[in-house]
From TrEMBL:
Residues 147-221 form the HTH crp-type domain. Residues 32-114 form the Cyclic nucleotide-binding domain. This is Nitrogen-responsive regulatory protein. Keywords: DNA-binding, Transcription, Transcription regulation. PROSITE patterns: CNMP_BINDING_3, HTH_CRP_2. GO terms for molecular function: DNA binding; DNA-binding transcription factor activity. It holds the Pfam family HTH_Crp_2. It comes from Bordetella pseudohinzii. PANTHER family: CRP FAMILY TRANSCRIPTIONAL REGULATORY PROTEIN, DNA-BINDING TRANSCRIPTIONAL DUAL REGULATOR CRP. The keyword Mitochondrion does not apply. One of its GO terms (cellular component) is cytosol. The keyword Transcription applies.
């Protein structure tokens, strides 16, 4: 089944000043324009390249042994993709697919590594972003391992609120639409479970929603995760 989230927004991005460093380092790589549906890399394949997204959106997903698919991230402009495997020289842990036409800067790690001495800001930014993404992934795994779907869903909504939240009097409005199907794909739960859990969280006053828009209500125990890279 094709679970690509065509209407989804991105779930991760870096600060503008960090993104500018990667844009300024374009001469160390090459610009690529790819059509919708292009697979940048596949889980299990070797790979020394990583990508900076200039425009467009890329879905990063993991396939489990039983064939189940889990959406790891939805990356938009200002995101870095594939750097983990490139840095350590290991097979890809995920598959990356363009959700729409994209403009990317492709970097080959063995090549750019030789220029680190002359491009210290780029080297530092690459390592900082890779470390930040590793930390975020660890946090996500911690929540995904929890049997309670409400904690997973609150964690996801809290992260999106930190990225796209608009503070209001009674909470933070997530300024991007979300479907129950997308929430299920991002939290490793079923759509039925998401619907039931959202109703429970609304009853408890943790969240509220109008159609596809959600608010994180002011709750002292709500999970907060800042995903912006300094």
């Amino acid at each position: 089944m094709d679970s690509r989230c065509e209407t989804a927004t991105e779930t991760w991005y870096m600060a503008a000043r960090t993104a500018d460093i990667f844009l300024a380092a374009e001469h160390l790589g090459r610009r690529r324009e790819i059509p919708k549906g292009t697979t940048l890399y596949r889980q299990g394949d070797p790979g020394s390249t990583f990508y900076f997204v200039v425009s467009g959106r890329v879905q990063v997903q993991i396939y489990q042994q039983d064939g189940a698919e889990f959406i790891l991230e939805l990356m938009g402009a200002g995101a870095l993709i594939g750097e983990g495997s490139a840095l350590v020289g290991q097979p890809r842990m995920s598959t990356a697919t363009a959700l729409e036409p994209c403009v990317l800067i492709e970097f080959d790690y063995p090549t750019v590594k030789r220029s680190f001495r002359e491009n210290v800001d780029f080297a530092a930014a690459l390592m900082e972003v890779a470390a930040a993404k590793q930390w975020v992934l660890g946090m996500r795994i911690q929540f995904l391992a929890m049997p309670r779907p409400d904690l997973r869903i609150v964690e996801l909504l809290s992260r999106l609120a930190s990225l796209y939240g608009v503070p209001e009097e009674d909470g933070v409005r997530i300024n991007t639409p979300l479907t129950h199907e997308l929430v299920a794909a991002l939290t490793g739960t079923s759509r039925v479970t998401v619907t039931r859990t959202i109703m429970k969280l609304k009853t408890e006053g943790v969240i509220r929603n109008e159609g596809r828009h959600f608010w994180m209500c002011h709750q002292p125990g709500a999970a907060q995760e800042q995903r912006r890279v300094a």
